[in-house]
Specification:
A: 440 residues; Rossmann fold; two-stranded parallel ribbon; B: 361 residues; mainly alpha; ABC transporter involved in vitamin B12 uptake, BtuC; two-stranded antiparallel sheet; 14 helices; 3% strand
Chain lengths: 440, 361
C-alpha cells in the first residue's frame, strides 16, 4: 500500500517539477529557429524527409558559414505528430526563446497561429500550405505563404492541361476531375477550378475521399471509371496519394493525366503504383534529384560529419528537397532582415521585414549554388505569396524528373479571389487589426 | 491526527448531507481554489496556456462524461462530437449575435449540445453496454461529418475552420488573439469551479441518486418508482451540456480556432480514458484523470531530455514522442491492474490513512 502512495507522491512531484523546468528555459546566443516537425504518427512517412531536409540545410549553414551573417542558428525541433493540440503546445514551449519565425508545417496549426502572429510579433512562414488568403499582405502582415498558394497550383494545372490539349480553346467540353481529401485542405482548389470552368467551358467533377477512407478508394475510382474524366487533379495528403496512384494504375486510368498537387509528389507516393506509374505528374516548385552545387556542401558538411539522420542514399528525395527549400526561405529571410536592419542579431519583427523585402534573383540563386533548383522569387508588402513559377514534375518509374518548363500561375484569376477571401476573413473577426507595419 | 473529525458534531440533516462534512475538507478546498486563482499571477504563459487551461477544460469534459458513464452506467463514445456541437453552436451564436457577451453564449451553447445528446441518447432506453457504445459512435461519425460538410456551420469560411473573434468581458479581452492567457485562465477556472459545484449538487441530490440506482440495477430502480426514460435522458442531457460547454471553451478560450477534425473519435477516447483512470463515479477523479492523461506527457517531454542528457544520450523530439506513448500505455495498464477503481479510490485511501494516523486500526 505504501508503495502506491510513494508512486502517487512521486507522480505529483514530477508534474510540478516539470512545470518549473519548462519555465526555466535558458537563453542561448544565436538566432533561434524552431522547427515544428512530425516524425511520428500517421503522416511520419512524409514528415521525416521534410524535417531532415529543413534540419540539414540550416545545419549546413552553421557548419560551413558559421550561421548567417556570423550569427549561429540555434535549431530546435518540436514534435507535433501533425496534431494541432501538440502543435500549439510546441508553439507555447518555444515562444519564450524568442523564435524569429514559425514553421507550423500543418494547415491546422497554421490556422491557430495566424491570429497570434501579430500579437506575439512572430512571423508565420507556411510554405505553400495554410491559408491561401494569407497571400494578401495588407490583411495578414505577419503571415507568409510563398512561393505559391493552392489556388495558384490549381490554375497551373489547368494551364498544363491547356498546353497538352493544344490551347485553352480546346478545353471546352472536357471533363476534369478533382480527387480530393474531404477536408478544407482538399476543397481548396474548388473555387478556382469552378471559375476557370466557367471561363473555358469545361466541366468539373468532384471526387471527395473521406479522411477515414484514404486507403480505401475503390468506390471513388468506380465513379471515376463511369464518368471517364479527361484529367484528374489530385489534392491529397498522406496515405491518400499512394493509394490514388495505385488505384489509377489498377483501373487503367492514364497516369500521365493524373496530376498531383505538390504535396502528392513524394517519392513514396509515386513508387506505390509500381512500374506502370511511370508518367504520373505532380506540381513542384523546387528541383528534383541531388545534382546541385549546394547539395555537395550538405553532403560534405552535414552527412559526412554525421550530423544528419537522413539516409545518405536518399538525399535528393522530393520531400527532402522540399525541406531544404523551406529552410532556404528561412535563411534568406534572416539574411535579408540583417541587410534591411543592419543588425546581425535579428528578432521576429526584423525577420518579418526580411520576408517582405525578400527578392531572390538569378544572381543570388547562383551564389547559393541553387541554379536549376529554384525559380527566382520575390515577396512584397502586399503580396505575401509572390505567385511564383512552378513546373510539372513527372515520375519516370524510378525518380522524379522535370517534366515541363517553369510556368507562372494565372495570377489575374487568383489574386481577386485571394483579396476577397482575405476581406471576408477579416470581416468575420471584428476588430481584426488594420495593417500598421511599415513596408520595408 | 491531522485529519480528524473529532469534535465536529452534526446537529441537523443539512449538515449531515453536506458535500464536505469535515471542516478540514472545507479549508482544503478553499486553499486549493485560492492557489488555483493565484496561479494566474505566478504561472508562466506556457504553464497557463499549455498546461492549466487544457487541464481544466478536459477535467470539465471528463466530469460530463463521468455523469453518464460513471454515475448512470451508460457507455458513450460520442464525447468529442458533443464537444463539437457546443463549439459550433457557440461560434454561430457569437457571430449571429455579436452584441451579447461571449460568456452567455458559452453557457447557452451547452444547451444545444444537451439537445443533440438527448436525441442520440434515445437508443439508451432499449440498449445497454457495448451496444449503446456503438450507437453513440454513430453520433460521433454523423456529427463530425456534419461539421465538415455543412458550410453554414462555419459561416462558409474558405479554410473550413471556426475562428475565435475578438470578445471582451469587463473591457478585458478574453476571446480572440488579443486575450492574454491570464485572462482566459481566470475565466476558464471560474466556469469550471461553478459547473463542478453544480455537478456536485446534482450527483449528490435526487437526480444523482436516481442515476446511481439505474446504474446499479435498472429493473430494481424502475420498481422503486424511478422512471428510466426520464433519468437516462436527463443523464444524457446533463452530460452533453457539460461536454458542450467544455467544447466551446476549448475552441474559444484555449485554441482560438478549430477545424472539424479536432472533435474526432480520438478526443472521445481520450476523455473516456480520463474518466476510467480517474475513477468512475467520482468528480475529483475526473480532475485526477485529466491531470494524469494530459499533463503526464508534457511532464515527460520536459523531463526525459534532462534525465538522459547527463548520461550522454541525446533524446530527440521524436524519441520523446515514442517514449510518451510507451510510458503512458504502461501507466494505464499499471493503474488498471493495481487500482481498477481509479485515482479517486487511491485518494480515498490516502484520506482514510490520514484520518486514523498515527494509530491505524
Amino acid at each position: 500500500m505504501s508503495l502506491r502512495l510513494y508512486g502517487i507522491g512521486a507522480l505529483a512531484a514530477s508534474v510540478f517539477a516539470a512545470s518549473a523546468a519548462v519555465t526555466a528555459a535558458q537563453a542561448q546566443d544565436g538566432i533561434y529557429v524552431p522547427l515544428l516537425s512530425y516524425r511520428t504518427g500517421a503522416f511520419a512517412g512524409s514528415g521525416i524527409p521534410i524535417a531532415d531536409g529543413m534540419h540539414d540545410y540550416l545545419t549546413m549553414l552553421n557548419e560551413r558559414d558559421g550561421g548567417i551573417g556570423g550569427v549561429p542558428l540555434i535549431i530546435e525541433e518540436c514534435e507535433t505528430g501533425y496534431d494541432t493540440t501538440r502543435g500549439v503546445e510546441c508553439y507555447e514551449s518555444v515562444r519564450g526563446n524568442n523564435p524569429v519565425v514559425m514553421n507550423p508545417y500543418s494547415t491546422g496549426i497554421t490556422l491557430q497561429l495566424i491570429p497570434r502572429a501579430a500579437v506575439d510579433e512572430i512571423p508565420v512562414l507556411s510554405m505553400a500550405y495554410g491559408l491561401s488568403a494569407a497571400a494578401d499582405g495588407t490583411t495578414f502582415p505577419w503571415v507568409f505563404n510563398p512561393p505559391v498558394t493552392y489556388w495558384d497550383g490549381a490554375s497551373v494545372f489547368i494551364k498544363h492541361v491547356a498546353n497538352v490539349e493544344g490551347g485553352f480553346e480546346n478545353l471546352a467540353g472536357k471533363t476534369i476531375g478533382l480527387l480530393h481529401l474531404d477536408a478544407p485542405y482538399g476543397r481548396e482548389p474548388i473555387p478556382v477550378l469552378n471559375a476557370l470552368a466557367e471561363e473555358h467551358g469545361f466541366e468539373v467533377k468532384l471526387y471527395p475521399v473521406p479522411a477515414q477512407d484514404m486507403q480505401n478508394q475503390s468506390s471513388v475510382w468506380l465513379n471515376i471509371r463511369r464518368d471517364r474524366p479527361d484529367w484528374i487533379y489530385l489534392q491529397g495528403w498522406g496515405a491518400m496519394n499512394p493509394t490514388a496512384v495505385r488505384e489509377a494504375v489498377r483501373t487503367n486510368f492514364p497516369v500521365d493525366r493524373l496530376v498531383g498537387v505538390w504535396w502528392a509528389g513524394g517519392d513514396e507516393d509515386a513508387r506505390a503504383g509500381g512500374a506502370q506509374a511511370a508518367g504520373y505528374k505532380s506540381l513542384n516548385f523546387h528541383g528534383v534529384g541531388a545534382d546541385y552545387p549546394f547539395m555537395d556542401d550538405i553532403i560534405t558538411y552535414v552527412h559526412e560529419r554525421g550530423l544528419s539522420r537522413f539516409p545518405r542514399d536518399r538525399v535528393g528525395d522530393n520531400l527532402y528537397n522540399r525541406g531544404i527549400y523551406n529552410s532556404m526561405l528561412i535563411a534568406e529571410a534572416i539574411r535579408t532582415a540583417q541587410e534591411v536592419t543592419g543588425n546581425a542579431m535579428v528578432d521576429g519583427a526584423d525577420v518579418r521585414l526580411g520576408l517582405e523585402a525578400m527578392n531572390i534573383t538569378e544572381e543570388r540563386i547562383v551564389e547559393m549554388g541553387m541554379e536549376g533548383f529554384m525559380a527566382p522569387l520575390a515577396i512584397s508588402c502586399e503580396n505575401h505569396s509572390g505567385h511564383n513559377e512552378v513546373y510539372v514534375a513527372q515520375w519516370d518509374g524510378d525518380a522524379w524528373t522535370q517534366g515541363t518548363d517553369w510556368m507562372s500561375p494565372l495570377t489575374e484569376f487568383v489574386r481577386p479571389l485571394i483579396e476577397e477571401a482575405a476581406q471576408s476573413y477579416a470581416a468575420a473577426d471584428a476588430g481584426w487589426p488594420e495593417r500598421t507595419e511599415a513596408c520595408p | 491526527m491531522i485529519y480528524r473529525e473529532a469534535g465536529q458534531f452534526k446537529s441537523n440533516y443539512a449538515a449531515d448531507m453536506a458535500v464536505f462534512p469535515l471542516r478540514q475538507d472545507r479549508i482544503g478546498i478553499f486553499v486549493i481554489i485560492l492557489l488555483a486563482y493565484s496561479m494566474a499571477y505566478f504561472g508562466s504563459t506556457f504553464m497557463l496556456q499549455a498546461v492549466l487551461i487544457p487541464f481544466l477544460i478536459f477535467a470539465l469534459a471528463a466530469i460530463g462524461l463521468n455523469m453518464l458513464v460513471g454515475y448512470t452506467g451508460l457507455l458513450s463514445l460520442g464525447t468529442g462530437a458533443f464537444m463539437g456541437v457546443g463549439a459550433y453552436a457557440c461560434y454561430k451564436l457569437m457571430t449571429i449575435f455579436p452584441g451579447v457577451n461571449v460568456i452567455v453564449w458559452i453557457f447557452v451553447s451547452g444547451f444545444f449540445a444537451a439537445g443533440i445528446g438527448v436525441i442520440f441518447g434515445l437508443p439508451s432506453l432499449r440498449i445497454k453496454g457495448f451496444y449503446l457504445a456503438v450507437a453513440t459512435l454513430a453520433a460521433q461519425f454523423f456529427l463530425q461529418w456534419t461539421f465538415n460538410r455543412v458550410p453554414w456551420l462555419y459561416n462558409y469560411n474558405v479554410s473550413g475552420a471556426i475562428e475565435a473573434p475578438r470578445r471582451t468581458l469587463f473591457d478585458v479581452h478574453i476571446v480572440g488573439a488579443a486575450a492574454t492567457p491570464q485572462a482566459r485562465y481566470i475565466v476558464v477556472l471560474t466556469i469550471v469551479i461553478l459547473l463542478t459545484w453544480i455537478a456536485s449538487n446534482i450527483v449528490h441530490g435526487r437526480i444523482g441518486r436516481q442515476w446511481m440506482a439505474i446504474r446499479d440495477m435498472d429493473i430494481a430502480a424502475e420498481l422503486m418508482g424511478i422512471r428510466p426514460f426520464k433519468a437516462k435522458l436527463m443523464a444524457f442531457a446533463v452530460s452533453s451540456y457539460y461536454c458542450g460547454v467544455a467544447g466551446a471553451m476549448m475552441v474559444f478560450l484555449w485554441y482560438g480556432g478549430a477545424e472539424y477534425n479536432v472533435f474526432n473519435i480520438e478526443q472521445s477516447f481520450l476523455i473516456l480514458f480520463m474518466v476510467i483512470i480517474g475513477g468512475l463515479g467520482s468528480l475529483i477523479g475526473s480532475f485526477f484523470g485529466a491531470a494524469l492523461i494530459f499533463m503526464l506527457p508534457i511532464a515527460m517531454g520536459a523531463f526525459l531530455p534532462a534525465i538522459f542528457a547527463p548520461l550522454g544520450i541525446r533524446v530527440g523530439a521524436e524519441t520523446i514522442e515514442h517514449l510518451r506513448f510507451m510510458i503512458l500505455g504502461a501507466m494505464i495498464i499499471f493503474f488498471l491492474i493495481v487500482e481498477p477503481h481509479g485515482l479517486a479510490r487511491l485518494w480515498q485511501i490516502v484520506k482514510q490513512k490520514l484520518r486514523v494516523w498515527p494509530f491505524p486500526y
